[in-house]
From TrEMBL:
Entry-linked CDD domains: NPD_like
Organism: Cobetia amphilecti
UniProt xrefs under SUPFAM superfamilies: Inosine monophosphate dehydrogenase (IMPDH)
Known cofactor(s): FMN
Gene3D superfamilies, per the entry: Aldolase class I (3.20.20.70)
Keyword terms, alphabetized: Detoxification, Flavoprotein, FMN, Monooxygenase, Oxidoreductase
One Pfam family here: NMO
Recorded GO MF terms: monooxygenase activity
Keyword Oxidoreductase: yes
The protein's name in its UniProt record: Propionate 3-nitronate monooxygenase
Keyword Oxidoreductase: yes
Family: Belongs to the nitronate monooxygenase family. NMO class I subfamily.
Reactions catalysed, as given in the entry: 3 propionate 3-nitronate + 3 O2 + H2O = 3 3-oxopropanoate + 2 nitrate + nitrite + H2O2 + 3 H(+)
Length: 374
């Protein structure tokens, strides 16, 4: 059994520690969490999930404190149920001029295909929560029921302040080492993100070797090796998937891609169309779009990873600035295949219906599947 750095012994399962119901952990009826999906989730989507008995989430990783405050206030006007606010805790990017110049030079022909030139420099679009005292202050003031972390953990001081404010804290883990770090930091639950999941991998160190564990394997491993409640995430699209996650020992399942086809998210028509087309059957894991590993639909941007290149993308979110500029150039000419169309491997199972209706379908499927399992 692996140990966390500086530990004197391994972590073993407390047989009673996993006997936490979804209601006890989150104060909600159903073991269904809507993934935060920064840039796509909306207060309307989160509210629909909350009001249907699940846990709605807002992704604040792509906005500032003022923007996150507006999202929280709008959500609170739509529901009185518990909800989750997710923030990014990525490492500050290293500005490597040579690497950025070479990257933009490699992308130049693709920009030129749309009659434009790449940007001359790359700026960090998003501030890490670790370097954003305004976001911390806003959360301490508004006190959302749950705050979750992606890409890492903030300082012990920030964690202590949030917990003192009565906020429950979750964090994403893609491997056992990250899960142990989350547990030792004193958080309340671990989101086990399997390799099937859409969007950005929650790896603490994007340069480290990815264990590439499936949702089921990672969930079982963390249930066995840690004491905290585990939330399974990645490739879960229906009630059977929810039941399977709970059978693996998770207290809840986190679903993201399944909600993109609903009318409430801010996904554009091109994204929705791609989700229901052949691209959904061929998702790709790539760092080309943003500088961090992320699973995307098989669009033109994803296909660039097949071009011969030994270049390493600039650090996240510097590469994202280039990616967004290329997407804007392409869209100006009517090409929508350069968008960040994140999706998990279960994408072909997406269903287009209002989120409230989808939640009812997921509930009925889960109840039926659970009854059949008995």
């Amino acid at each position: 059994m692996q140990q966390a750095a500086g530990s004197s012994g391994s972590i073993s399962l407390n047989p009673d520690s996993k006997r936490t119901s979804m209601g006890e952990l989150l104060g909600v009826e159903l073991p269904i969490i809507q993934a935060p999906m920064a840039g796509v989730s909306t207060p309307q989507l989160a509210a629909a999930v909350c009001n249907a008995g699940g846990l709605g989430s807002l992704g604040a990783g792509a906005t500032d404190a003022a923007g996150a405050r507006r999202m929280i206030q709008e959500l609170q006007s739509l529901t009185d149920k518990p909800f989750n606010i997710n923030v990014f805790v990525h490492q500050a990017p290293v500005h490597d001029t040579e690497r950025q110049t070479e990257w933009l030079k490699w992308l130049a022909p693709h920009f030129q295909a749309f009659d434009t030139e790449p940007p001359t420099q790359l700026d960090a679009l998003y501030t890490s929560f670790a370097d954003d005292p305004d976001m911390l202050a806003m959360l301490l003031e508004t006190r959302p029921p749950i705050v979750s972390f992606h890409f890492g953990l903030p300082s012990s001081q920030a964690i202590a302040a949030l917990k003192t404010a009565g906020i429950s804290l979750f964090a994403t883990a893609t491997c056992l080492e990250e899960a142990i770090a989350i547990e030792r930091a004193g958080l309340d639950a671990i989101v086990a993100q399997g390799f099937e999941a859409g969007g950005h991998r929650g790896m603490f160190d994007p340069q480290a070797a990815d264990a590439e564990l499936s949702t089921a394997a990672l969930t079982r491993l963390l249930v066995h090796e840690t004491h905290l409640p585990i939330i399974a995430a990645g490739g879960i699209m229906d009630g059977a998937g929810i039941a399977a996650a709970l059978a693996c020992g998770a207290v809840a399942a986190q679903l993201g891609t399944v909600f993109i086809a609903c009318p409430e998210p801010s996904a554009d028509d091109a994204y929705r169309d791609a989700l229901t087309g052949s691209a959904a059957h061929h998702t790709r894991m790539t760092s080309i779009v943003s500088g961090r590993p992320a699973r995307i639909l098989a669009n033109r941007f994803a296909s660039l990873m097949e071009e011969p290149s030994r270049l390493t993308p600039p650090d996240y979110p510097l590469s994202y600035a280039a990616g967004k500029a290329l997407n804007a150039a392409a869209r100006s000419k009517g090409e929508t295949g350069f968008g960040a169309q994140w999706a998990g491997q279960g994408a072909p199972l997406a269903r287009a219906m209002p989120a409230e209706e989808l939640m009812d379908v997921l509930k009925q499927e889960w109840i039926e599947e659970s009854g059949n399992a008995k």
